[in-house]
Every structure is written in structure tokens, then in C-alpha cells.
């Protein structure tokens, strides 16, 4: 097997890359060649922003066909990852060691679980796992990290001796807890909740409606250039209001409009005939329908009490029920999602540490962190919003 490194996604054949996603049960649009290339060509994920592309492909000797691959970057910082290792970097610095650059196998700015080691079968994936440490030693990196792995690949890296780390997100499932069947409509969903949770949701939706807010839902090519421009205004305003520069440039969103319109759903809040806020969601669709909707970004140009909850959760859940979507992933963090029927779901990352002493220390630390995370998840489960019995 021959491993090759690529400084640009554009250097990798798009059809061969996307073919590796075909049989992945948790594949999503954020792993597509067009998405990753747009991050680079738009100067969103590039060396100037601390993301140096160094993508890996695996080939049989003498052949150009890609049999396995991974989206990899050399990072000069830890921003935009959503798995926080700043304390690890400080520990390295305290011992006079260089934590950066580090190797990162992930999708920039996108905390969506899924496959990270792309291959058509387990044997080719195992070859890729075997090849990676030699690549990192050649690159002279001290640590490497694979973020937001699916459970199957998590187990494969656990078996290979990599350190494991767990987090939590909040996901909604289109499954009535009593019948285990999809919800028939939004009222059926509400009826499955405890009375106080059901009353609170209805009150919040009513207050938003009384403020004069209505909604438009746009999908795929129906999202016009003007709609994308409005979304960008909301997205940039929200980041700036929180004191942060937006990660993703206007050129990136233009690439999404022109190269991946099928992957997006836009819910627009209207007031007095004018758009005032919106929520952008990704979609994973197969031949048998939309499997998963991913909450990605929201923003508002006018303030309306409780609009965020109605727009980002209730309207999305209603749309998912109407279109028989199996799952809605609410994105990173947010205990407030639990009261809106998004339940805790574990997330996984795997870590390769070159230095044996640091590896041993981090293994002990992660064992304690994992127990604390398990206790936290158990506590969350005790506060399920669904009716008991």
C-alpha cells in the first residue's frame, strides 16, 4: 500500500473520494469532496487561518485508484474543532514541548458525527489506520486527533490502542417512545411529552406567533441567491454580536449555493412581510428519503422573545415529522435542548500521542474524564421530557 499526502482537495479526484462515502451508514454532506474543497477555495480553512490541508489517500502499489482516504489538516491552534484540548497544549508548553502543529482528521468547523477514515471495506480501513502513525512521524507532529467519529470507527481505533474521549450532543429521533413508530404529526409529538414540557412548548410557540412571526421553508434549489444573502447577513451578525469573526466566508456560502444546493434546508422567519431571522440545516438524503437533518447555523436581524426555540427546534421538528425524517441533530452543546425533546447522544474522538509519558498521563486523565462524562449523561437521562410509563 502507498499513502499519499495532498495539499489541496482539488488534487484528489472528486468521484473517487465521494465513492468512498457510498456505503458509509453515517455519511453526511459535510464529508463530500465539494464541501471540503469549498472550505479551502473560499479561504475558510487554509494555512492563513491555521488549517493547512494535508489530506491522506491510500493506493495499491502501481495504481491510482483511491481505496481509502481521510480529510487531514495540520493545525497551528485548536479553534473551530469543538473538542477542546487547550489544557493539553498548556501541559506540553509547560514541559517545553511543542504541541503545535498537530495533525487533525476532522471536518473544519463542523461538529457532525460520521466516518472520518473513508474506505469501502474494513480491510482497507485497517490499512489506513496502520499507515497513519508513520505519516505523522514523518511530518514530525507530536499528537494527532480524529474528531466526531462514528461508533464503528471509534471501536477500530480503540482496538488499535488509540486514546478515547467522549462528549455529548443532543439529538431528536422521530420515534414515539410508546409505539416506537414515527410521529404522525406535531400534536402526536407533543402528546408524548410530560404535561409541563408540552404546556411550555405551546406557550412559547404561541408567544412567537402573537409577535406576528410566520415561517417559510425553502429546500435545495428553491433557496435563491437573495435567500442565501439574507442568511449570510444573519450568520455574520450573530457571530459579530458574540465578539467573534465568522469562520466561513461569503465565497464558501456561494460555493454551497452553486455546488451543493441539494444539501441544504433554510427556515426563514417573517414579520410584516419581511425576513427577520433564519435557520440553516444540512440534510443527508438517500434513495429512500431524508435520513438526518443537521442544525448548523441560525441568526436574527430583529429580536423576538423565544424566537430561537421556535425557529431552531419546534419548526424543525414539525418539518421532520411531516417529511418522515428519522433524526434531527441539534449540533454542539446546549442542555436547553433536552427540554425540547433532543436527547443526549455520545460523541467520540480518538487521539494518538507520540510521547509515551504524555500518552500515559493523558490516558489516566481521560479515564477520569470519561467517568465524569458518563455520570453527566446519566443525570441528563433522568430529566427526559417524555412521559413516563
From TrEMBL:
Any one Pfam family here would be: FemAB_like
Q: Which SUPFAM superfamilies match?
A: Acyl-CoA N-acyltransferases (Nat)
> What InterPro entries does the record point to?
Acyl_CoA_acyltransferase, FemAB-like
Q: Cite the Gene3D superfamilies for this sequence.
A: 3.40.630.30
- Entry protein name: Acyltransferase superfamily protein
What is the organism field in this record? Lampropedia cohaerens
- List the top taxonomic levels of the source: Bacteria, Pseudomonadati, Pseudomonadota, Betaproteobacteria, Burkholderiales
